[in-house]
Amino acid sequence: MGEMNTSAISANELVLIMASVATIGVIGGWVAQKLKLPDVVIYLILGVAFGPTFLNLVNMEAFPTANEIILTFGSAFILYEGGREVKLKILNEVKVSVGLLASLGVFITAGIVGLTAHYVFNLSIGPSFLLGATIASTDPAALIPVFKTVPIKNKLKQTVISESAFNDAFGAILFTSILTGLTMTQRVGILATSLELVFMILIGLLVGIGVALIAVGISSDKKYGIFHGYAPIISITVVVFAYEISERFGGSGYMAVFIAGLVYGNKKRFGLWVPDEDYISGVHFRENLATIARMSIFIVLGTHLNLNSLVEYGIGAIIVVLVLMFIARPIVVLICTTFDKKANWSKNEKLFMMWVRETGVIPAALSGIIVSTKVEGYEIISSVVFMTIIITLLVQASTTNIVAKKLDVLEK
Question: Which fold has domain 2-407?
Fold first, then answer.
């Protein structure tokens, strides 16, 4: 009986925590609109305020299961939505640039940031590169709302959005590989790690395509699309099944959900379509779910932040962020666009790509996982990720329109 009462109390507290996070998120969204600031910045600040550091009204460390659900499912769903935004027709024109930016670019960024963190914080090389992998990817969830208000040239816009969606997946895979290597007691060689990385990508690719084709088929307007009325709900099952099946076969769950979103978002190329009424209801449903995922991830990250660590490592964190913005990103863009002669990028377009690389949802979720596992240097990593999100969103996202006008990359 005592055990039942304890379980009931824990369940009630868990429900209360989830409702509190949602309420804080709604308030944060409203405040962000009034102040004309990126909403995720407000979510982070409110997470710190309501977390253990100050008011201690939301303590996610007491509920590791809820914490893991928010971070894992939330990041997976955001990646799925990022995949749906990528248009294969336009992607085909800039595939070399996008492919290099999203893969080689992630490794270059992780390497430069990792070495910087190693020397700035005197951190071991493994956790340093884990930090680099955590903030190596950009954020489609931050970029897409900006591009809805700033009319960037379509080819350039699709390139930046596609890169952010693809490099989130690559960044998550690289992160998983490094974290697994750090937490394993037996050391694994570079060749074995590289082969495992390729295997994770291939399995994720195959599972994502398979799950998405089945799901879009049964929810389409074809005669076998008998579940088209449940298309919004099927979106959730696609994310869960793609992630879990891939993980159980040793693949990357993040790659699987991204590829599933890519297939779903380009279903017409496979001769499939969802009836208009179901499609519209699905868009509204996914937008709301993505909003909940974003606010929950950033609030949870804020509750994890140790203010003393932020004060202690703040100067070093700012140095790492500046290196990321003004050294790593320009090098990545210069290298990765040089090989794409077909795209014929202008100097101003390259400069715009160098500036637009906001950090957001996926790094926030990965940082939460690091804090949960308590790997070496987790307080440093958490502080740097927090600072990276704040600085890149406040400085870069808020100046996108100004920079685009100066560089003349707006649609005429």
Answer: Na+/H+ antiporter like fold (1.20.1530)
